[in-house]
Every structure is written in C-alpha cells, then in structure tokens.
Design goal:
Elements (H helix, E strand, L loop, with lengths): L9 E6 L7 H10 L5 E4 L1 H6 L1 H9 L3 E4 L12 H19 L5 E2 L8 H8 L4 E2 L6 H6 L4 E4 L11
Parallel strand pairs: 1-2, 2-3, 4-5
Antiparallel strand pairs: 1-6
Length: 156
C-alpha cells in the first residue's frame, strides 16, 4: 500500500517545535509575508501549549497531527496507532474546534500497516519532499504534496 503522488498541490509545512518560545515570532514572520502553512503538531505539545496551538489556528494556519507522543509507528500495532492518532486529533480538536484530516508519521516512518491504520480513521498520512531550491531560499520550509481529492489516494 505505497504512498503515491496523486497531484501537484504543494503546501508549505512546519512540524511543531518542542518548545513554544518562538511561536508568536514565527506567526508574525509568516503574516508579514502573507504565508499560510500547515503545522503538524504532537498531541503532547498541544496539551502543554494550547495557547500556541490556538494562536496558529487563529492566524489562519492549518493545525494537523504529528502523533500524540512521537512514537515509532512502525513498532506499534494497528490498535496502538489508532489510539495514538485518535488522542492527537482529539487534543487538536479540543483546542481548535477542527478535527485534523492529515497526519505526518513521526520520524517519517511508515509501512503498509501504518498507512492502513491511519486511513482507517479517515485521515490521510503524508510525507515530506524536501525541495532543494526552496530550502536554499527558505531553510525553515519543506515542500509537501497533498492529495485533496479522496482518502483512497495519498499525499506523498
């Protein structure tokens, strides 16, 4: 069950930092350049810094899941992955009022059972694709292809 590139829709994305000291500065910089992005946040970070998560959401950025505890999904059972994803999405929805539809697996690890477990929740797993030109121009950003058509496709 490989992830396949299905379209050419790219979105700038950031994964949540482990602290929140620079969150407002980052929001301000993105606003200055009129950039909207998708933040992939860990549920533990959401619970520790709900005000930062709400600030991202209120600034018009997407807030999506990067797991609940940043575990190695390849080492978990499908039931453990489902529980982890559900916990993460519940935490984000509690703060933002919007349920995530995307998840970036921790460490970029995925296999057929990881993809199937995530998709069983109606959530699309995504993976990043670093674009060297973008990185040279803006080292904090990664380019991500995202499938917006259906959950049967993928966004790699």
């Amino acid at each position: 069950m490989p992830l396949q590139k299905r379209d050419e829709h790219y979105r700038r994305t950031l994964t949540s930092p482990w602290g929140n000291e620079d969150t407002q500065t980052l929001i301000d910089i993105l606003a200055r350049y009129n950039i909207k992005t998708t933040f992939f946040v860990v549920g533990d970070w959401v619970e520790k810094y709900p005000e930062s998560v709400m600030a991202l959401h209120e600034a018009g950025h997407e807030v999506m899941s990067h797991s609940a505890h940043h575990d190695h999904y390849n080492q978990l059972s499908a039931d453990q992955i489902v529980a982890d994803v559900t916990a993460s999405c519940d935490a984000i929805e509690k703060v933002c009022g919007v349920r995530p539809t995307l998840l970036r697996p921790p460490y970029g690890e995925y296999d057929d059972h990881v993809i199937a477990a995530i998709r069983s929740l109606g959530i699309e797993p995504i993976q990043w694709d670093v674009d060297r030109v973008q990185r040279e121009e803006s080292p904090v950003f990664m380019r991500v292809s995202r499938n917006s058509s259906d959950s049967a496709g993928s966004a790699f």
